[in-house]
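Provenance and format

Records in this collection were gathered into a single text stream. Each protein contributes a sequence line and a token line. The two records reproduced below are adjacent in the stream.
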Amino acid sequence: MTVADPPLRKRSVAAWLSNQPYLMLSLMSLFWAGNIVLGRYVAGHVPPFTLTFCRWAGTCLVLAPFAWPYLMREWPVIRKNLPLLLLLAFTGFAFNNALSYWGLQHTQALNALLIQSSGPLFVALWSLVLFGVRLSWMQAAGILVSLLGVLVIILRGDLAALAAIRVNAGDISFAAALFVFGLYSALMPKRPRINPLSLIAFTTGCGALMLIPLVGWEVSIGETLTFDTLTVLTLIFVVIFPSTLAYLFFNRGIELIGPNRAAPFFHLVPVFGSVMAIVLLGEKPELFHLVGYVLVLAGIFTASRRGSARTPASRP
């Protein structure tokens, strides 16, 4: 074994992972599930806009040393596509996450997970409006089946529980965040062809800058960040997993299979959330968990199959 073997092996693993869209999108959902659970857990302890700013500023700083050579080489392309990249920064990072973290301060995790299930519908809506890309029958059927599975899990097999859910300002904010993120997802196939590290580092950096006025307002009303153990661990988690890794995986997944086939993986978020509750909180597994998991996985398999893609409506 030579000294060059370990880096070579790491590169081969990374190259293999970068061509596994279903695995990357599944890991993305796992990380985002943890983000929702944690975001609700630290509600009232970490100000939402400051948390969002630290999340994206931290992500940019983590990626900057690796992305810098690409940023320098690709700067002419970045400058040429600056309006689109700023829109991606606003919809995918600044506005979307500010709304979702604020919403988690004012709603319950159950409501947030239910609203999260509408993500694929927003992606499909924006794809249709902007580019004429319609859901195929298989995609629509898959989304509905996986959505049913989500409802079975979250409502614990009791549809009557829907009547007990009350809509509040936090719910509206979280739904608005998903609506905006749907635009980001639909626009991703139109992004400039630059290195993924360049794309994430630049857009997260711009997103963090866009959040400075909101952070200033938050500080002015007395909501400041307290650097205790919980805060530090929260920032480390959100920077590494639901930010850096999840967005790299999500963007690459869209590049490989398209937004409408990638969006049904949003339904894995509440699945992983329920698994976390069983493993970490000691909840007892029930039959409705198994039924819900089967429905979600069946729906995702149906919607994300290669043959489920459909050409834009404007094309013959």
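Adjacent record:
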Amino acid sequence: MHSRLLAAAFLVAFTAAATAQTTPARPKITGISHLAVYTSDPAATDHYYREIIGAAKLPDPENPRGVRYAFNATQFVEVLPLPPGAGINRLDHTAYNTSDAEGMRKYLSAKAWKTPAKVEKGADGSRWFTVLDPEGNKVEFVEPPRLPQEIAAPSVIGRHLMHIGIMVHSRAVEDTFYRDLLGFRPYWFGGMKEDRLDWVSQQTPDSHDWMEYMLVHDTATSGIPATISLHDLGVLDHLSIGEDSVLTAYKTLEAGNRLTGVHDAHTQIGRDGKGQFNLYDPDGIRLELMNFHASEKPCCSPFTADDPAE
């Protein structure tokens, strides 16, 4: 009997070890790659990202109908034509840089997450694939080219896309993907009031860039609430450029007569204690200039990780 128990225990241990060896390790997620948005007016959107924000206009290796507006060699906004039936939605997908796109695809597949059969390859040497998060949001993982092209954008208002935000219904549901499966790490959370949770920020596993749950408090579990407006949705689905000084960036925009279109009346201190200034593209997607570091004590919770930097 004793020998049979030992044999059974050995078999269980061997099976567990074999399973661990056949499950691939998660490749690094090295920060934010891009936010992909729709435009209903390509000319106006081009003016906004090139002349106001100062990003470099580039062809889109992923989609011949798209355009990239780059802040640096590996971070950009991807602008796509507004598809039929989009309604008020202006977000196509979020995207994160990874050290190994194929390795990430295999890792997610081994964890029983639905993945495509193969990665895509771009003319610039990049590789990527797309999955859906638990609420049906498209998420892309991008392996940048081995030698990314340097970007000439002398007037860009900031060079570091340090966070992106998406509308989320359930923190717990989304955490099963971003926290449990991908290893995103807590950074900060807060709300418009002390007893209300509106925003949950968590950093990518291998950088200080972060993604932000922009929580909506309704009874739906996915999709765009029927009561939300185009403007309010654009406030939720957003991107943020890091600044050493938002006030200095604001003065640069003002001095260059670049404060046209829709934007806040002035800079402000957010609930997280960081200086910020919001601008909106012609379809309402918010671009938040934000200080890398807080100048005041944040509400609601302390920061639990180091800040990003230039």
